[in-house]
Write a structure and sequence with these properties.
alpha/beta, nine-stranded mixed beta sheet, 12 helices, 9 strands, 36% helix, globular
Amino acid sequence: MTDPAVDGPRPLQHWCWRGHSIGFTSQAPEPGSNNTSLTESGPAVVVLIHGFGASSGHWRHNLPELGQHFSTYAIDLLGFGSSDKPCSRLRGETARAGAVGYGFDLWAEQVADFATWILAAESTNLPGHAPSLQLVGNSIGGVVALRASELLIDRGLAPRQVILIDCAQRTLDEKRVALLPWPQRVSRPLVKQLVRQRWLIAPLFRALARPTFIRRVLAMAYPSGANVDDALVELLFRPSTDPGAPESFRGFVNLFDDHLAPEILARLGSVPVRMIWGEQDPWENPAEARQWAKQFACIRELRLLPGLGHCPHDEAPQLVNPILIEWLSATGQSQKNREDRAA
């Protein structure tokens, strides 16, 4: 196992979790650098969590800059990126050797264990300075960050802050099915039954996991068109060629009935949450983000970014990175009043 707390930028590394190889990348300020940001509770350790179908590489424009200020780690969730992609087990299926139930609890346990590991290593390398953990998640990575926070609270390792970037609102969930248009409600049972079938899901996945299709999806997700380049297409496409990739895609079926962000936000207590949102996100409605900001006491601030879509951290890192550095550097009470949160 590689020691995670070595300063400086490094290539992809691997960590063994429950017998699975987990990929991650990291960067930290140079030894003796004046850029190391200390929060009121110690040096900041940041974990970046990607969305569905993405990987640690999706933080390509953020990790280098954040790593100049904080010990920053970007992890590949199990089933994605360079991490192992074991066989999926859907709810109601008989357990089989090596199969995993993809979903928010599994990924949250992975992130919580990873955070526990790196916090221990960072504490060893910085004696007398307890590190301050902060989680940043995009899309479903936001829900993973929230659920991992609950697990870490139970361990006495509550994160100092959670930052959500266009967090998944998950209108596909059974608990929100009444909000769907009636054709989707009627066809839903059939769709769920079909996507459970391996004979169907494998060729469907191969048809979708093509560079041309990926570019069409990115054109929707990145309305400005900025940073939709060959490197982005490749980092999304390459993991899809791994033998187990259709299994993690099939595991998405478990998300039809899983944790919802508002449920966790209602339980989160005193852990501060801040949100960044692209105003042109085609999938996650910023109006709901405004409602969350008004409804949940843990949410300290919401910043809406005009003209940007579902992945503003990659679409416009020149706008998002300064916000992240500001928030990660000073995690006390927001300078803004509660009434300003949804502005």
